[in-house]
């Protein structure tokens, strides 16, 4: 276990990432939506440069590969679930995102607190 490491799975707008960084943790922010992942990279450029934050623009899935991801205009509703909240309204688009198993993220970054 790495006592100062936190994973923020579905980092979205970075609220939880910001909280954990402020508490002194190193954070791996995992965000499938490439627009949100890019925004995190801009918002937290200093923390990335210092090594306190890594942004992984992937989805967590059972296997490495690609999956359809449904991006909703309410970004907190975005999901891999085709018939879920993300697709209930016509305010979504389907994109394909790379996926990685959680075990691979743990191997890459360590076991979090």
| H/E series | EHEHHEEEEH
Number of domains: 1
Q: Termini separation (Å)?
A: 6 Å
CA-atom Rg in angstroms: 14 Å
List segments where confidence is low: pLDDT < 50 over at least 5 consecutive residues. Answer: none
What is the count of DSSP helices, taking H or I runs of 4+ residues? 4
Q: Strand tally, please?
A: 6
Helix content: 25-40%
Give the strand order of the largest sheet, numbering strands 1, 2, ... along the chain.
1-2-3
Shape: globular
Strand content: 25-35%
Main beta sheet: 3 strands, parallel
- Structural class estimated from helices and strands: alpha/beta
Determine the mean pLDDT.
91
What would your notes on this structure say?
The chain has 113 residues and is an alpha/beta fold. The chain has one domain (5-109). Helix content is 28%, strand content 29%. The protein contains 4 helices and 6 strands; from the N terminus they run E-H-E-H-H-E-E-E-E-H. The strands form 2 sheets. The chain has a 3-stranded parallel β-sheet. Strands 4-6-5 form a 3-stranded mixed β-sheet. Strand 1, helix 1 and strand 2 (26-30) form a beta-alpha-beta unit.
Indicate the topology.
Elements: E1 5-9, H1 15-22, E2 26-30, H2 34-43, H3 45-50, E3 53-56, E4 59-60, E5 65-72, E6 92-100, H4 102-109
Parallel strand pairs: 1-2, 2-3, 4-6
Antiparallel strand pairs: 5-6
Give short descriptive properties of this protein.
single chain, 113 residues, alpha/beta, three-stranded parallel sheet, three-stranded mixed sheet, 6 strands, 29% strand, globular
């Amino acid at each position: 276990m790495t006592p100062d490491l936190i994973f923020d799975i579905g980092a979205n707008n970075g609220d939880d990432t910001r909280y954990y960084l402020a508490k002194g943790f190193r954070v791996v922010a995992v965000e499938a939506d490439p627009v949100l992942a890019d925004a995190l990279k801009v918002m937290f450029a200093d923390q990335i440069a210092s090594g306190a934050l890594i942004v992984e623009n992937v989805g967590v899935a059972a296997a490495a590969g690609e999956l359809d991801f449904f991006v909703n205009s309410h970004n907190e509703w975005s999901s891999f679930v085709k018939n879920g909240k993300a697709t209930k309204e016509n305010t979504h688009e389907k994109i394909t995102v790379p996926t990685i198993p959680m075990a691979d993220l743990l191997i890459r970054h360590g076991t979090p607190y």
